[in-house]
Amino acid sequence: MFGYVRPCKPEMKVQDFETYQAVYCGLCKQLGKMYGLLSRLTLNYDFTFLALLSIAIGNSTPSYRRERCIAHPLHKRYCCLECESLQFASGAAALMLYYKAKDNCADSPPLKRLGWYLLMPYFSHLRKKALPHFSEIDKIFCTMTKQQQELERSGCNSTDQAAEPTAKALSSLLSMLSSDTFEQRVLEQMGYQLGRWIYFMDALDDIHEDFINKGYNPFIQKNSVVFSQYTAEKWKEEEIPKKIQESAVGSLNLTAAQLAAAYGLLTIKQLKPILDNIIYLGLEESRKAVLFRHKPKGK
């Protein structure tokens, strides 16, 4: 997960944003407690969403307390205290970081690859700590990484096929949040669509960098004729071609709609306004932000 699943803050009530922030801060502290201080740098919005969803469909309400932290030492802020949902999201975050780093070691340009190699012992240490408690999650991410690398090595030019490993991984991950058969099926579908959406977002966001560095990107593979017109130098100042934007936005919108449809089948016991905001408003805002980042200066 890559930090795209975030709320639309301007549309949130103050109390809802404070609750969201409390879970975010709680996850940060949980990471530090379970995996060490540096692991807190791995915190992102996607795993906060995972923790929120776990809390929302669960039967227990977590406790909150005003606390100080390294990022805000002068002012106490509400923080969600340790619970199973935070532990689960922390374990998933630590393991995802290891497999993301492993993938980057294989795919990054030489200089960045060296940086990832130097950091791999630390990421391996995180994985070793998480593995005894979350071995099933580790298997999910390991399978996802292997399948993704195989698709990329084959030069897969189907965006749907390229998104499949991430979609299946999040489908399996979200299904672990419930023991109820019906909820598991809904969560599987929700996770599948969320995985597709995140993969498409990441590919769209990285399209300039991937073209310049000759990295794999399904939108580039699919539109090789369009990209053959560009040099790396020319591409730096170019907006994403309209044809590719329309195709990517169409895939993202369809996937987000199917995600919302699956979400609507869940019984949300708490935090519903926050999750509604993320699903119905936040995903769209993230998509617009990614496209805006790729507009040439002055436009």
Question: Short summary of the structure?
Answer:
With 299 residues, the chain is an all-alpha fold.
General description of the model:
- This protein has 299 residues and is an all-alpha fold.
- 69% of the residues lie in helices and 3% in strands.
- It is built from 13 helices and 2 strands, in the order ααββααααααααααα.
- α1 (14-35) crosses α3 (84-107), α3 packs parallel to α5 (135-153) and α12 (242-263) runs antiparallel to α13.
- It is globular.
- The two termini are 30 Å apart.
- The model has no long low-confidence stretch (mean pLDDT 90).
Total DSSP helices: 13
Biggest β-sheet, characterized? 2 strands, antiparallel
Count of strand segments = 2
Q: Radius of gyration over alpha carbons?
A: 19 Å
Pattern of helices and strands:
HHEEHHHHHHHHHHH
The computed structural class is mainly alpha
Oligomer: single chain
Percent in helix: 55-70%
Write out the strand line-up for the largest beta sheet, numbering strands in chain order: 1-2
- Report the portion of residues in β strands: under 5%
Q: Roughly how many Å apart are the termini?
A: 30 Å
Please outline the helices and strands.
Elements: H1 14-35, H2 45-57, E1 64-67, E2 77-80, H3 84-107, H4 110-130, H5 135-153, H6 159-175, H7 181-205, H8 207-213, H9 218-222, H10 224-227, H11 232-235, H12 242-263, H13 272-293
Antiparallel strand pairs: 1-2
Supply the key terms.
13 helices; mainly alpha; two-stranded antiparallel ribbon; 299 residues
